[in-house]
Design brief:
heterodimer; A: 331 residues; alpha/beta; Rossmann fold; eight-stranded mixed β-sheet; four-stranded antiparallel β-sheet; 22% strand; B: 335 residues; 10 helices; 12 strands; 29% helix; 26% strand
Chain lengths: 331, 335
């Protein structure tokens, strides 16, 4: 199986507090996943689950405590930023914060072209910029000499994508690309990712808390909870038949745009987040409706359940019986 | 569902900004007619910058410069008597606030004083609105109220930063409902929260509403939240309400082209058919388009749309739409 980017046993520990009262928070705890060429992969979860930290490590803004990032079969060395040299580009959450309000938008394009030496003359540069802008439904004339304040959030986000496309990247890391964009324009951004994948073979690491758009646009998804991947598989498996109790809760909590299907029942919320990071064993044990003794002691490994990876003790027995089944079939 | 408890008539509220000696007028709320009934959850939906927060400010009688009331009025019905908000003095407004109409803002961190414990915030609040002599009495009241809402009373001893975002938002809601207001106005109360926490907050709001039998006016751009809690929904676009109907009809039979786009573009589970965004960009309220503000983005735009704003047409009981497409033959304002 071809892998464009692989993340192997990635861990990031942040230290909080002063020398006297130190608390270690494992923001990303030993996670592994990979992205195939021409695939949209979602990393989803609530705030504080470590999804953005993972993205920042991949982009090189943050150094991992341990673990490796393998891009096109090459491991990230100590002082090289893989994303920088190998064509991984990033798009950020807030389109208004991406661009300096006192600089014209086109300067960002020329800067990227200079940094990567993509053109030899100004004319060539403009042609390249224009070609990329046309992919997102704009032209160079639309933004020549304009400042960020002259665009709407949706337009700026599209401009941001066009800028990322300048280097012909194979992978785009999009950290919550639509959460700050108006609902009426959200789909134009999401559809753009689909087109980039289908027409140009670009992969996208789509980091989001919005499972409905993730379902719409993504191929595979990993659900993170308090630094761990609790469930991973295709969007059909994970979102339409969630197996981990946390994924089930998450899925049930999404307000569906259908007044006939309102929320039923009452849920419990965690009062203080830190408790869950510091919890031994499964971090969801405090809120899990199916909690068992073993959950409070042992961190669950990933089990294969119908092709999806689920980190939950509930499925331990099932996969063991599967093994028995396979063993008996082998005889 | 009862009679109107809060009414806006031809309400116009503009921001007058003075930039380098040039006055810039932002028509944030432009000619809004609204009737909110007793014991209902009324949702207002719209994109950012469509004027929905300004509308809430006007409804909550919190108009302060640079926002100005340019026309129309807001009417409260307090104990059977109708009161025009513009005629109230500051002191009378202060007395109505929190006891009659309460406000839950989006960012709970900016409501709770970061250097005060929650119980001191509660005490401040109680002392300024109720005639409570003893400290202990105020605490007892706060504790009782929290228990009633299913929140752990130990949070009274915490500082705001020690609570999670969802808990802070629920504390704010508890604070706003302490005096059992008849109307609760929520400005995106769940927007900054995670889905699971959001569900908890909506659960609390619903719980409060069914207990107090009061009215909630809820602004959010999340149609999923509206579908879950609202009884009736008003769709706002460029400072105007363009469609208003029961939640079932807004989702089941959206009529205005903007509402249709809004509902159709929502991604749904189990359905991967391509979805389209509304073409174009939201208009600037400093310089709104002529006629119907949606006409530059509307695929059905006609000549008349560019010239004249359509009045409301009643397409079903409790379902009114401001669009020339459905207004054929019934021009002008159908009440």
């Amino acid at each position: 199986m071809e892998k464009l980017l692989e993340v192997e046993n990635l861990t990031k520990i942040f230290t909080l507090g002063s020398v006297l009262s130190r608390v270690k928070i494992t923001a990303v705890d030993n996670i592994s996943f990979f992205i195939r060429p021409a695939e949209i992969f979602a990393l989803a979860g609530e705030s504080g689950c470590g999804k953005s930290t993972t993205a920042r490590i991949i982009m090189g803004f943050e150094r991992a405590t341990s673990g490796a990032i393998i891009h096109n079969g090459r491991r990230e060395g100590k002082n090289e930023k893989v994303w920088f040299t190998e064509g991984i580009q990033a798009i950020f959450q807030d389109p208004f914060a991406t661009f300096n309000p006192l600089r014209t938008v086109e300067r960002y394009f020329f800067e990227t072209i200079q940094n990567y030496r993509l053109a030899t003359s100004k004319q060539e540069a403009i042609e390249r910029i224009d070609a990329k802008l046309r992919l997102v439904g704009l032209t160079y004339d639309d933004l020549a000499g304009k400042y960020p304040s002259e665009f709407s959030g949706g337009q700026l986000q599209r401009i941001s994508i066009a800028r990322a496309l300048l280097t012909d990247p194979k992978l785009i890391i999009a950290d919550e690309p639509v959460s700050m964009v108006d609902a009426s324009l959200r789909m134009s951004i999401v559809n753009l990712f689909k087109r980039l994948r289908d027409d140009f073979g670009v992969s996208v690491l789509y980091i989001t808390h919005d499972l409905a758009t993730a379902y719409y646009v993504c191929d595979r998804i990993a659900i993170m909870f308090r630094g761990k991947i609790v469930e991973m598989g295709t969007v059909e498996q994970v979102l339409m038949a969630p197996k981990h109790p946390y994924t089930q809760l998450l899925r049930a909590s999404i307000p569906e745009a259908d007044p006939a299907r309102r929320w039923q029942g009452v849920i419990r919320l965690s009062d203080i987040e830190q408790d869950e990071y510091l919890r031994q064993g499964c971090r969801f044990a405090g809120r899990c409706p199916h909690v068992m003794d073993v959950c409070r002691r042992v961190t669950p490994p990933q089990f294969d359940v119908d092709g999806a990876q689920v980190a939950c003790h509930l499925y331990a027995e099932m996969s063991r019986s599967d093994e028995v089944l396979i063993a008996s079939q082998g005889q | 569902m009862g009679d109107a408890i809060l009414r806006a008539e031809a309400l116009r509220a503009f921001y007058a900004l003075d930039i380098y000696g040039k006055t810039k007028i932002i028509q944030a709320v432009n000619d809004v007619d609204l009737e909110i009934r007793e014991n209902e959850v009324y949702g207002i939906a719209g994109e950012s910058g469509c004027g929905k927060s300004t509308l809430l400010k006007a409804l909550a009688a919190a108009i302060e410069p640079p926002l100005r009331l340019m026309g129309g009025k807001v009417v409260y019905r307090v104990n059977g008597a109708e009161i025009d908000v513009a005629t109230l003095s500051q002191e009378e407004k202060r007395r109505l606030r929190m006891t009659y109409i309460a406000y839950v803002p989006q960012g709970s961190m900016s409501v709770l004083n970061p250097v005060m414990r929650i119980r001191d915030t509660y005490r401040d609040f109680i002392e300024s609105h109720l005639d409570v002599r003893q400290k202990g009495e105020a605490f007892a009241l706060a504790r009782e109220h929290l228990v009633e809402l299913g929140l752990p009373p130990k949070i009274l001893d915490a500082y705001p930063h020690q609570l999670s975002g969802g808990m802070r938002q629920r504390v704010t809601i508890a604070l706003a409902t302490l005096l059992k207001p008849r109307i609760i106005i929520g400005d995106e109360p769940t927007t900054a929260l995670d889905v699971v926490v959001q569900r908890g907050v909506v659960q609390l709001l619903r719980d409060v509403q069914s207990r107090l039998k009061n009215t909630i006016v809820l602004v959010t751009h999340d149609m999923g939240v509206h579908a879950n809690i609202a009884d009736r929904i008003g769709i706002m676009y460029a400072g105007k309400i363009v469609e208003e109907a029961s939640t079932e009809r807004i989702f089941g039979a959206p009529t205005h082209p903007y509402t249709r786009y809004l509902i159709d573009s929502l991604p749904r589970f189990g359905d991967k058919t391509p979805r389209e965004s509304v073409p174009g960009s939201p208009p600037s309220l400093a310089n709104p388009p002529s006629g119907c503000p949606f006409h530059p983005r509307c695929p059905h735009a006609m000549e008349i749309c560019k010239r004249e704003m359509p009045g409301f047409t009643r397409v079903a009981p409790d379902h009114r739409v401001a669009c020339w497409l459905v207004g054929e033959g019934s021009y002008g304002k159908a009440a």
